[in-house]
Amino acid sequence: MATFLYKLGRLSFRRRHFVALIWVALLTLAGVGAASAPAAGNSSFSIPGTEAQKAFDLLEQRFPGVSADGATARVVFKAPSGEKMTDPGNKAAVQETVKELGDGSEVARVTDPYQAKAISKDGTIAYAQVSYKVSGMELEDSSRDALQDSAQDARKAGLTVEIGGDALQTVPHTGSSEIIGIAVAAVVLVITFGSLVAAGLPLLTALIGVGIGVSAITALASALDLGSTTSTLAMMIGLAVGIDYALFIVSRYRAELAEGRDREEAAGRATGTAGSAVVFAGLTVVIALVGLSVVNIPMLTKMGVAAAGTVAIAVLIALTMIPALLGYAGRRVKPMGEKGKRLGRTSKKPERPNLGTRWASFVVRRPIAVLLLGVIGLGAAAVPASSLELGLPDDGSQPTSTTQRRAYDLLSEGFGPGFNGPLMVVVDAKGSDDPKAAFTEVGDEIKGLEDVVTVTPPAPNKAGDTATITVIPGSQPSSVTTENLVHGIRDAGTDIKADTDANVLVTGSTAMNIDVSEKLNDALIPYLVLVVGLAFLLLIVVFRSILVPLKAALGFLLSVMAALGAVVAVFQWGWLSDLMGVEQTGPVMSMMPIFMVGVVFGLAMDYEVFLVTRMREAYVHGEKAGQAIVTGFRHGARVVTAAAVIMMAVFAGFIGSSESMVKMIGFGLAIAVFFDAFIVRMAIVPAVLALLGRKAWWLPKWLDRALPNVDVEGEGLRPDSDRGDTDRELIRA
User: Do 416 and 369 reside in the same domain of the chain?
Assistant: First the structure.
């Protein structure tokens, strides 16, 4: 591996014009494809294998043209103080609005609140429901604009008008804080390298890689049904790893220059050593992201694969374009330590060890104290995770400043909290001898369940073999009581199936959210086993050790649990919510744990590979186990610290997003990187390695012979005489 990458780095350095031309051409091609591709909105949403999805599919067959999974909007009207919605002026304004609502080409039907008796008992609140032919993910912007314009006309008549439902879903924006994150990364790079040119290389290559990745996603969005969140995630991950990977190679290049090598040789050796670590670090991230397909949620699979593709591009750019740009930069990228010499800071006194060396020496002397402090600290941060509540966001979790949230509150005020999450029960009586009796029995059985406020009469299809029943719970959609009601209806359906041969299915957005949460929870353990297992095998090959990969996996579990605890504290408990811009607390998004596990594991292994491969390199080259830890920190601690700060800054930039999912992911990943880089990798890892000593690098002889030698530490790049000396030193040790 090291020898191949060494040759690739030297070739890219020499043929820099050709390499740069290729990447610029790819960026141009992707940009043209994105510009000429048909506009694509949000992706469609389906959850194969869930009961709610089966019910939607059945409705499409038995009720053709109804668009059971189409978008809905509830336009809620409230009369001025002292008036009723039945007053002539208010009634005329509502009916005029209802007429306007039905004019859109994507509108399937609109219910008149006076005909549907959708008026509260006190007569002050009414609502009109708009059903669309397409899902909220596929609705055109023109339809949303028409919906909001109709509401505005009613407001001019003196009514309070708010709109709820999934018809108002919009493409999220990240805000200016994303730019701030990139600016912070630039400052950190300048401080790390002491040169604008050297600092600019990682930023330039990362932006090119993200540009290619995001443009390709945009170009393929319509054909592959990719949503806006897909490109946001790809940008988030691509920027972070792109800067980090380039940072490691440029840093190693400067270190090689400091050892007296010429620039082409230094570029080759930097690519062969640090580049090898980049390859395996990138592989762990790709494994973690592609592994999201295990969950079998198409939207999550597409997000993971698209982000993995962007990571792969970041790896390829780091291995080829960074050496090429180093060739262009020439002497403007200085050897490591040359800045001090230029400024005249020369002294006969021994050079003071850097902070990384001093810290590692302290950890090696006090490993037990550092280990206990790190584990206890992360354990304390993980405590809130014990009260983790999962759910998917609805209008009740929106900020109070939004019309969706105000509509939600008005409906709760006028009709009860459960009115915002009606359940649709589908009765398939095709195999029943008496479908009508089966429909009636289902309705009567549901009326006897707890927390049921209203059960509508069965509405059969033309064939008379399938009917829908709407159930209004007494509790809000995200409550545990409503979840228990859904399970209660499904349990009752099992008995009805035995009596009447009729299938009872529960669907609707509330039931779909419950099914998604359960599906994600069930997939978490298999996903962990797959991703951690594959990465564990990969790290055995990289480090040629059993205990080092095991320690890496256990450290990751500590950091991810602490990060989940922080997410619960902020987004569920409300700690520091004002600082984070969290206007409404509530359950943590269902996909957050499994998504955080995937992404954080990949990123955690980045720091593990970059830091520990330098220790492994020192150990293989003859240093004792304790000294190898110090050497690894001397060369890698500053760079890993800079990489972690950069990654945190990039992720934190997405906290300004208008989309609650993106905001939560940005915060969760930023805090997870902090825990993993600064507590696990910088403290717990060296402490454990110091306690293990030489045993840390133990590998059974039979496994050593069976594993391929990928030579991450660059042993193959050393002269034969040096390798022989090292072998003799290792034998004596």
Answer: no
Q: For the chain, how many helices (H) and strands (E)?
A: 25, 11
- Write down the residue that tokens 């509405």 correspond to: 459
> What's 440's domain CATH number?
3.30.70.100
CA distance 655 to 576: 13
Is 402 domain-assigned? no
Domain that holds residue 303: 2-36+173-336+353-384+514-732
pLDDT at 723: 45
Cβ neighbour number for residue 463 with a 10 Å cutoff: 10
What pLDDT does 348 receive? Answer: 47
Check: CB of residue 77 under 8 Å from CB of residue 159.
Answer: yes
Let me know if residue 342 belongs to a domain.
no
Q: Are residues 450 and 541 in the same domain?
A: no
Helix spans in 621-659 (H): 625-652
Per DSSP, the three-state class of 400 is coil
**Mean pLDDT, 10 residues at a time, over the chain (733 residues)?**
87 92 93 77 65 86 72 89 90 90 83 87 90 75 84 86 80 57 80 80 88 86 70 80 87 87 90 86 85 82 87 93 90 71 46 80 93 94 88 73 87 89 89 85 89 88 89 86 90 83 87 86 84 82 86 87 92 81 75 80 77 82 86 84 83 74 83 91 92 88 82 60 42 39
Shared domain for 379 and 235, answered yes or no, is yes
Residue 342 burial (10 A CB sphere; 0-12, 13-18, 19+): exposed
CA–CA distance, 581 with 147 (Å, rounded to integer): 28
Sole residue written with tokens 């609707």: 508
Vertex 186 angle, CA 645 and 640, to 5°: 35
Identify the H or E element spanning 307: helix 298-329
Residues 716 and 634 in one domain: yes
Q: What one-letter code names the amino acid at 515?
A: D
Shortest CA distance to 2 belongs to which of 533, 601, 616? 616
Has residue 345 been placed in a domain?
no
Pair 502, 528 in one domain: no
Are 421 and 476 in contact, with CB atoms under 8 Å apart? yes
- Supply the pLDDT for residue 136: 67
Nearest residue to 324 via CA among 199, 201, 189, 195: 201
Number of domains in the chain: 3
Torsion of CA 52, 57, 63, 66, to 10 degrees: 80
Instruction: Compute the distance between CA of residue 497 and CA of residue 483 in angstroms, rounded to an integer.
Output: 21
pLDDT given at position 125: 93
Tell me which DSSP letter residue 335 carries. Answer: P
Work out the burial of residue 380: count CB atoms within 10 Å of its CB; fewer than 13 is exposed, 13-18 middle, 19 or more buried: exposed
Q: Do 30 and 211 form a contact (C-beta atoms < 8 A)?
A: yes
Same-domain check for residues 498 and 625: no
Place of tokens 């290049």: 253
Beta carbons within 8 Å of 457's beta carbon, 6+ residues apart = 443, 469
Question: In the prediction, which pLDDT does 642 show?
Answer: 85
CB atoms within 10 A of CB 424: 21
What would you report as the CA-atom Rg of the chain, rounded to the nearest whole angstrom?
30
Asked if 602 and 536 sit in the same domain, the reply is yes
Q: Of 113, 137, 168, which one is at a domain's C-terminal end?
A: 168
At residue 38, the 3 state secondary structure works out as coil
Whether residues 239 and 211 fall in one domain: yes
Q: Do residues 544 and 707 lie in contact, with contact meaning Cβ atoms separated by under 8 Å?
A: yes
Q: Are strands 107-110 and 503-507 parallel, antiparallel or unpaired?
A: unpaired
Q: What is the pLDDT of residue 728?
A: 41
User: Which residues, in sequence order, are bridge partners of residue 423?
Assistant: 471
Number of other residues whose CB lies within 10 A of the CB of residue 462: 9
Give the C-alpha distances (Å, rounded to integers) separating 251 from 7, 84, 509: 19, 72, 51
Q: What is the C-alpha to C-alpha distance for residues 27 and 456, in angstroms, rounded to an integer?
A: 57
Distance of alpha carbon 177 from alpha carbon 650, whole angstroms: 9
Distances (CA, A) of 725 to 78, 487, 543, 618, 622: 86, 70, 21, 14, 9
